[in-house]
Design a protein that fits this description.
The chain has a single domain, classed as 50s Ribosomal Protein L5, Chain: A. It has five helices and six strands, in the order βαββααβαββα. A six-stranded antiparallel β-sheet has the order 2-3-1-6-4-5. The N and C termini lie close together (12 Å).
Length: 133
């Protein structure tokens, strides 16, 4: 894996809704299966939210999008959702529960709702290039 050295701070925020039919512990486990070092926890009654400032948190996504040849899809989504120094993408929550990174383009592709990953970085071009090139 190519290591990235950013010249600016990274803020990664993970957010997903916990449905009444879901176990909050299993949803937290799904998040930690695909995003490491983010310490997700229940907030606001039905949300799992995790934060990280460590690029290592994206290692699993980095590896799996390459193994599935999904770099072009993720690049298109990251660029399309970009606003200044922030961008975001969705992961399928059910796939994440078994440790699989499945990029989805809209919320309806994940029946129980998606996991939203938001990236904020002043050097966002470098971060996107590292993640998808």
């Amino acid at each position: 894996m190519k290591r990235l050295s950013l010249n600016s701070n990274l803020e990664l925020v993970v957010n997903t809704h916990v449905n009444t039919s879901e176990s909050p512990i299993k949803v937290i486990h799904a998040v930690t299966n695909v995003i490491s070092r983010c310490s997700p926890e229940m907030k606001y009654g039905n949300q799992v939210i995790g934060k990280s400032v460590n690029i290592v948190s994206l290692d699993i996504i980095y590896e799996q999008i390459r193994s599935r040849s999904a770099q072009n899809v993720l690049r298109r989504i990251l660029i399309g959702n970009r606003t200044k120094n922030t961008t975001w993408f969705f992961l399928n929550k059910q796939a994440a529960s078994v440790g699989v990174v499945a990029i989805i383009e809209n919320e309806q592709e994940s029946p129980l709702g998606p996991i939203r990953i938001t990236l904020n970085c002043e050097d966002l071009d470098t971060l996107i290039s590292w993640l998808v090139d």
